[in-house]
Amino acid sequence: MGFDLERFVGYVNEGLLCCVCRDVLERPLQAPCEHAYCSACISSWLLHHHSCPEDRQPLDVGSLKPLYRYMRNDLNRLQIRCVNAGQGCEVVCSLENLHTHEDECEFAFISCSNTGGEYICYYCGCPVQVERRGLEAHLSECNFRSRECPNGCGHTLLSMDQSQHNCVAELRTEVELLRAEMLCKVEEVRREMESRLDSQRRHMVQKESQLKNEVEELKGQLSRVMCDMRALLGAERLRRQELAEAELEKRELLELLRDLPTRMGERARKGGTRSLTLDCIKRKSREVTVI
Ligand SMILES: [Zn+2]
Ligand SMILES: [Zn+2]
Ligand SMILES: [Zn+2]
Ligand SMILES: [Zn+2]
Ligand SMILES: [Zn+2]
Questions:
Q1: Is the pLDDT of residue 274 over 70?
Q2: From ligand 5's centre to the CA of 153, what distance in Å?
Q3: Ligand 5 centre from 128 Cα, in Å?
Q4: Would you say 113 and 107 are in contact if contact means Cβ atoms under 8 Å apart?
Q5: What is residue 128's three-state secondary structure?
Q6: More confident call, 264 vs 45
Q7: How far apart are CA 132 and CA 144, in angstroms?
Q8: What's the 47 CA to ligand 1 centre distance in angstroms?
Q9: 129 C-alpha vs ligand 3 centroid, how far in Å?
Q10: What's in the keyword line of the UniProt record (predicted)?
């Protein structure tokens, strides 16, 4: 949308008017057919058309160009009244300088800068709109101006809340909130510890049953070993017994040998069986050696 023609002081060349809105060009663009438009006007026109609104020649966004420089200079030099003329601003300036002036125009309506104390929120701030020149006066009585509590409780108060402010009550609420928060945290920690203990307990039970199994296994092995040992001891005892018997037999044989000459004498006298007895002795002594 362009600038209202009525705001201009002096003659405005018709070539500086937008072909869509018929006001003075604002952020102008130019088509290859040399017709010019405000950039907002031609953008919305081309959403539904594909031609110049003035002469119906084909046109698309890509072929739009900046205005000729001499036209831009003419446009910038036009003299225009401030948009706040209705509120009393009498400033007339070149179109080029209009934004600079309007950004600091004393007659412009602006929003109060108080945002609602410590909670910065667009909706709960001061809704008042004042002329820039009246802002200071408004701020001194604005309901949303804030300051620290004069009694030192540390709260920031909006002036409209100050009469109802009670330091003790505020602090008590705060303490209660903190206490609730802490209880919550303690409960959380307790639950976590319990779950950790639980898992450790489960682990221990598992370990215990594992150990029991191992002990049972070892007991089995031990009893097998004992059994083997008993068998070995039995065998050993048997061997000793046999040895003792063999020893006994040996001694008997030795005695027999010692007495032999005497007996031989007797036998010689009786005659006969000497060779038989000798064979018998030899066989016996061989048996003893084997054992
Ligand atoms: Zn326009
Ligand atoms: Zn055209
Ligand atoms: Zn102004
Ligand atoms: Zn305010
Ligand atoms: Zn206080």
A1: no
A2: 4
A3: 27
A4: no
A5: coil
A6: 45
A7: 18
A8: 15
A9: 17
A10: Coiled coil, Metal-binding, Zinc, Zinc-finger
d(CA 222, CA 14): 119
Query: How large a percentage of the chain has pLDDT more than 90?
Result: 69
Tokens 């949308």 belong to residue: 1
CA distance 99 to 91: 12
Ligand nearest to the CA of 2: 1
| SS3 state at 29 | strand
How far apart are alpha carbons 185 and 242 in whole angstroms? 85
Q: Which has the higher per-residue pLDDT, 281 or 73?
A: 73
| Closest ligand, as measured to the CA of 84 | 3
Flag whether pLDDT at 290 surpasses 80. Answer: no
Distance from the alpha carbon of residue 157 to the mean position of ligand 5, in angstroms: 8
Ligand nearest to the CA of 44: 1
Which pLDDT tens digit goes with each residue over 210-240? 999 999 999 999 999 999 999 999 999 999 9
CA distance 265 to 288: 27
> What amino acid occupies position 240?
R
CA dihedral 172→175→176→182, nearest 10 degrees, is 180
Question: What is the pLDDT at residue 243?
Answer: 96
